[in-house]
Amino acid sequence: MAHLRITQAALRSTIAKGSARSCQCCFSSNALQPKTARPAMATSSNQIRQPMMQKRTKYKTVEQAKSRQSTGPFSWKAGLLFVATCGGLVWYFEHEKERMQRQRIAEATKGVGRPKVGGEFELVDQNGNKFTSEMMKGKYSLVYFGFTRCPDICPEELDKMARLVDIVEAKTPNNLISLFITCDPERDDPEAMKGYLAEFHPSFIGLTGTYDQIKDLCKKYRVYFSTPQNVKPGQDYLVDHSIYFYLMDPEGDFVEALGRQHSPEEGAKLILDHMKDWKR
């Protein structure tokens, strides 16, 4: 019995020693093993140390920034500049187109082989003074052919001519000569011309002469006129004639014919435009 107790005590001592060694080995092996580091995100020391810097903008609120992003690179200023530029280009090309058209019309009668409108003449004005084609040089001239006994067309055209002259004179004073040349020299002497033209405009110059002089001048200006035949002395009659205003430049050359379709404002604009185009 005593022997059995000794044996059990020895067995417990042996087991205790083995457990102690096992624990020491376990502890020593764990100590020798390297510790496994937890994975961490690689961050630089500068990023950790330096605070985040906000980028400065010119917008004070988020709404302003959104509004700018919604419009994109365009703004009302850019749109206004675009519209103004397009308008300027359109005006320039339209202006040049009209100027070139006027220039073609003005040079149409100056080309080789083309019939010339106008020419030299010598007549008498409403004051009995001599008036020649040379006296038209240096200024633009507006020439109309008619007669003082005309019942309706001539008065209407002379009223329009007076209005036209007033518009031109307001823009360029003393730069336009207004001539009324009779197609009825038998009845339109200087005295009759003076009294008739005084009712329309003080600047009008009335010209008359002999029948042959008037016929020759009408031929030079390509003006058609016709008087009835077999007219008895004192008998009233009408003269059929062309109805145009002939615009002549400062050199005495034909520029353009203004018809009944032109209003005084339109006719004045054409004359003023030709005056602007004129180069001495």
TrEMBL record:
Family indicated by similarity: Belongs to the SCO1/2 family.
Protein name: Protein sco1
Compartments where located: Mitochondrion inner membrane
An MF annotation (GO) of this entry: copper ion binding
Record-level GO cellular component terms: mitochondrial inner membrane
Lineage top rank: taxon: Eukaryota
Protein source organism: [Torrubiella] hemipterigena
Alphabetized UniProt keyword annotations: Copper, Disulfide bond, Membrane, Metal-binding, Mitochondrion, Mitochondrion inner membrane
Location of region: Disordered: 36-55
Keyword tRNA-binding: no
Binding positions for Cu cation per the UniProt entry: C150, C154, H241
Database matches in Pfam families: SCO1-SenC (PF02630)
Disulfide bonds: C150-C154
Annotated GO biological process: cell redox homeostasis; intracellular copper ion homeostasis; mitochondrial respiratory chain complex IV assembly
InterPro entries named among the record's database cross-references: SCO1/SenC, Synth_of_cyt-c-oxidase_Sco1/2, Thioredoxin-like_sf
Signal peptide: none
